[in-house]
Design goal:
With about 575 residues, the chain is mainly alpha-helical. It contains 22 helices and twelve strands. The chain has a three-stranded parallel sheet with strand order 1-2-3. Helix 13 crosses helix 14 and helix 15 packs across helix 17. The protein is elongated, with a radius of gyration of 29 Å.
Length: about 575
């Protein structure tokens, strides 16, 4: 069996002051785990971090947290001057679940067979994820569409179906089969045969019962086709998940791996396999980086691939720049649950916080906070943060787009005139993300759900005031002030949410809309006053127009064929 250089003996978990816990105060969690790895291995050792997942469906933003954790620890090690590499392992030798095969027409007849056996589907799912990682700057540019890179680099991509069938683990597998009873005792099992499953030589399914097991063969009965045969090739005898993990760790010399926090709890796989590492393999269990759940914007449920529908990394990239996406995952401790969404509160709130973070990282903020934010920024990207601090707020960009009929070039000219210091490429990128969000997730916020014409019908609860009587609410005083206003933007006044709802209801038939300052800058105060008066007196909304046909969502390069919620 391949051996790695002798590692420092693992300390008992009771001696580790931070086992599976949050990082120490003041240190980012990625740096904390990098320090643990640096303490465990000599300076010349290349730390290998594995991120693995099963292509049972398209990988969503919850799956992505595993790879982000590996990526950030990798960058933290490189920042410390240590050698490091990432191994992305696709577990396509796992079986297709019977229930999934019954629900998914594409998997009909594949229940119990390896995921990788349906090659076209597995390749499409894996390549989609790899394209997303490339767009994120995580997958190296030299990698091909299957994620393969030249030997000796800091990235590897493995497909477990391919490696099992090629006999990559043959030596370790035979050893495990020989010592099945000993391994069962270490894992708290009664029978070593329970640690393995045979893929039937006749029907290819894993619905088998092992009758005899030794180093060179596994006699079995198939419960699907009734065959009673003997599997002599270790590639047909798949270890259970716990053994499969230790097998790969031993063969690949894996030093670190992220895992959901449920995998490191008492009685979990990570907990139960400790005796295998300590008493059988004779070297430390990898350092585990535990992470919390990724939840939707609303509700308590986690984002789950079994439910389908994403959202996916490509959805995040359609409305956010790469550093912001990484920041969403890195800003809190890895054990904390995350909420990701595309509603107005989540979208606008993310940009507000990220802009403050970027300004602080570029030197605009209190000393301790600036130093901490700078460290985090350097973990996220090699790009400098300065340009992000020059950009207008996302609320302002959305308002400029709306007011210019969703014409990005007109909005860009307006914003560049109002913000002459804005970084031009980053401003164009922000306008593109704003347009995508505005015409997809934010559509109902800025246009009536009916998508009415310029002279939209007035909702019953928002009928125009009788022109013969004084108008109630904020419309009349705002109209009067707009008529006499000469400065930039709209006349400033303290307004309640109810008053804003009435103003936007008059202009657009919605409860929200572009900033009044932006609307006044684009149309002029007089036109804005005319629009409010048109609603008050005749029930018309001259500014309420649908986006032009050409205003479509921004599409991330190389991801056009992948399903996406943003479409």
């Amino acid at each position: 069996m391949p051996r790695r250089p002798r590692a420092r003996k693992q300390r008992p978990r009771v001696d580790d002051p931070y086992p599976y816990t949050e990082a120490r105060a003041g240190a980012h969690w990625a740096l904390e785990y990098a320090r643990r790895l640096a303490d465990r291995h000599p300076p010349h050792h290349r730390v290998l971090i594995q991120t693995s997942m099963s292509p049972s469906g398209y990988f969503h933003v919850g799956n992505f947290r595993d790879t982000v954790c590996a990526h950030l620890v990798h960058r933290a090690l490189r920042r410390m001057g240590r050698r490091s590499a990432i191994l992305l392992s696709f577990d396509d030798y796992d079986p297709v679940r019977t229930g999934q095969a019954a629900r998914d027409p594409e998997l009909a007849g594949h229940g119990g067979r390896p995921l990788g056996e349906h090659r076209e589907r597995a390749a499409r799912i894996c390549r989609t994820y790899l394209a997303e990682l490339r767009a994120m700057g995580i997958l190296p540019p030299e990698a091909d569409e299957d994620g393969r890179t030249p030997p000796g680099g800091d990235w590897q991509t493995h497909y477990q179906y391919e490696r099992y069938r090629a006999g990559a683990y043959r030596t370790v597998q035979r050893r495990y089969q020989r010592d099945a009873d000993r391994l069962a005792a270490l894992l708290g099992k009664d029978d070593g045969r329970d640690l393995f499953t045979v893929y039937c030589l006749q029907c290819g399914r894993n619905t088998t019962e092992i009758l005899r097991l030794d180093r060179r063969a596994a006699g079995y009965r198939c419960l699907s086709c009734g065959a009673e045969l003997t599997a002599r090739d270790p590639a047909d005898v798949k270890p259970s998940w716990a053994l499969d993990w230790t097998l790969r760790v031993a063969h690949e010399s894996i030093d670190c791996e992220p895992a959901g926090q449920d995998h490191v709890s008492a009685g979990s796989t990570m907990d139960r396999t400790l005796p295998v590492y300590e008493s059988y393999l004779g070297f430390p269990q990898p350092v585990i980086v535990p992470y919390g759940l990724v939840r939707a914007e609303h509700g308590s449920g986690k984002i789950s691939g079994s439910r389908g529908g994403g959202p996916y990394v490509r959805d995040l990239l359609a409305v956010h720049p790469v550093p912001l996406v990484l920041w969403l995952y890195a800003r809190r401790d890895c054990l904390a649950d995350l909420r990701l969404g595309f509603g107005p509160a989540a979208f606008l709130g993310a940009y507000e916080e990220f802009d403050r973070f970027a300004r602080s990282a570029s030197g605009d903020g209190p000393g301790p906070e600036r130093a901490r934010d700078r460290v985090l920024w350097e973990l996220l990207t090699d790009e400098e943060p300065d340009g992000y601090g020059t950009l207008p707020r996302m609320r302002t960009v959305l308002g400029a787009l709306y007011a210019h009929g969703c014409a990005p070039e007109a909005a860009r000219r307006h914003l560049a005139a109002r913000h002459p210091r804005a970084d031009e490429p980053l401003l164009a990128e922000r306008i593109g993300h704003a347009l995508t969000w505005l015409t997809t997730h934010g559509r109902d916020r800025y246009w009536p759900s009916s998508g009415g014409p310029a002279a939209a019908p007035v909702p019953a609860d928002r009928a125009p005031a009788d022109p013969r009587t004084p108008a109630a609410g904020p419309l009349a005083p705002l109209i009067d002030r707009l008529r006499t206003h000469t400065g930039p933007g709209a006349p400033h006044a303290r307004r309640t949410r109810a008053e804003f709802r009435e103003i936007y209801g008059a202009l657009f038939g919605t409860e929200h809309g572009p900033r009044l300052d932006t609307l006044a800058d684009v149309f002029g105060p007089a036109v804005l006053a005319d629009a409010l008066e048109a609603y008050r007196d005749r029930g018309e909304r001259p500014l309420c127009v649908e986006p032009p046909a050409g205003a479509t969502a921004l599409r991330v390069p190389d991801l056009q064929e992948a399903p996406s919620r943003a479409r």
